[in-house]
């Protein structure tokens, strides 16, 4: 197993307030790691530190052994980020958005190649040329996944990807994530969705007030057991 993501005593403080306290964890290629925790527990802070959007106060975040810093392009090229609401151009179609954002990342693909990324992300062919303005949240997310694939990102970070998705869209999203992980992509997501975390995650972390309190393997736990542990913890 190769370690793709590593946090070593990773800490973020704001004056007196500690948003993330000495997080140490290693995540392997092909894992789906789900981070649970109440609002304000430090999940987004953790993601933002890996993305290089924030500078660590102490400790470090590494991607494939390279330390993340806000100005290190090397780590940014290995990752993609899918926020809760994927920001795309409403007047462009799905395929035009993908073309635009993949060019921005330095890639130039044929129409056929762009369509292949969209199909792999689960977006039906008939939707490729429709305006983004008419897309559901789940469809926007699929374009976000296609952008991540077009960038050839090894790691995909996601913030609350299933919030606001209907059960069918959630199931589709879960299936796509599992497929990507089976191909070796690493997925790190912050979520409030306990059922889905058990369903798709390889491991689940539970955070409380900036600290990672539990890391659970999903193999041996039911959603009810995880919920009990979560409620006891937070
Ligand atoms: N710029 C900042 N200045 C001061 N405190 C901040 C700043 N950014 C975040 N925080 C605090 O850090 C803590 C952790 O926030 P974070 O966004 O990581 O939580 P979260 O677990 O992602 O919550 P949610 O589920 O609501 O997204 C919160 O208490 C938040 O108010």
TrEMBL record:
InterPro entries xref list: AAA+_ATPase, ABC_transporter-like_ATP-bd, ABC_transporter-like_CS, ABC_Transporter_VariousFunc, P-loop_NTPase
Pfam families assigned: ABC_tran
SMART domains: AAA
GO MF annotation terms: ATP binding
Residues annotated as domain ABC transporter: 5-234
Keyword Transport: yes
Keywords: ATP-binding, Nucleotide-binding, Transport
Domain of life of the organism encoding this protein: Bacteria
Matching PANTHER family: ABC TRANSPORTER ATP-BINDING PROTEIN ALBC-RELATED
Descriptive protein name: ATP-binding cassette domain-containing protein
């Amino acid at each position: 197993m190769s370690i793709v993501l590593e946090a070593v005593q990773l800490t973020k403080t704001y004056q007196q307030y500690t948003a993330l306290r000495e997080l140490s964890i290693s995540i392997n290629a092909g894992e789906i790691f789900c981070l649970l925790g109440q609002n304000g527990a430090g999940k987004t802070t953790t993601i933002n530190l890996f993305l290089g959007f924030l500078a660590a106060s102490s400790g470090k975040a590494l991607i494939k052994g390279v330390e993340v810093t806000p100005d290190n392009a090397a780590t940014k090229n290995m990752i993609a980020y899918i926020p809760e609401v994927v920001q795309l151009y409403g007047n462009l179609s799905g395929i035009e958005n993908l073309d635009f954002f993949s060019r921005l990342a330095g890639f130039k693909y044929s129409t056929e190649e762009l369509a292949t990324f969209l199909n792999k992300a689960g977006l039906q062919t008939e939707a490729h040329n429709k305006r983004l303005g008419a897309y559901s949240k789940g469809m926007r997310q699929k374009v976000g996944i296609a952008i991540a694939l077009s960038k050839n990102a090894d790691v995909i970070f996601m913030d609350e990807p299933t919030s606001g998705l209907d059960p069918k869209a959630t199931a589709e999203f879960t299936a796509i994530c599992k497929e990507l992980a089976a191909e070796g992509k690493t997925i790190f997501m912050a979520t409030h969705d306990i059922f889905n975390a058990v369903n798709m995650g390889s491991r689940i972390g539970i955070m409380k007030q900036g600290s990672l309190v539990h890391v659970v393997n999903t193999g041996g736990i039911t959603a009810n057991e995880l919920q009990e542990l979560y409620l006891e913890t937070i």
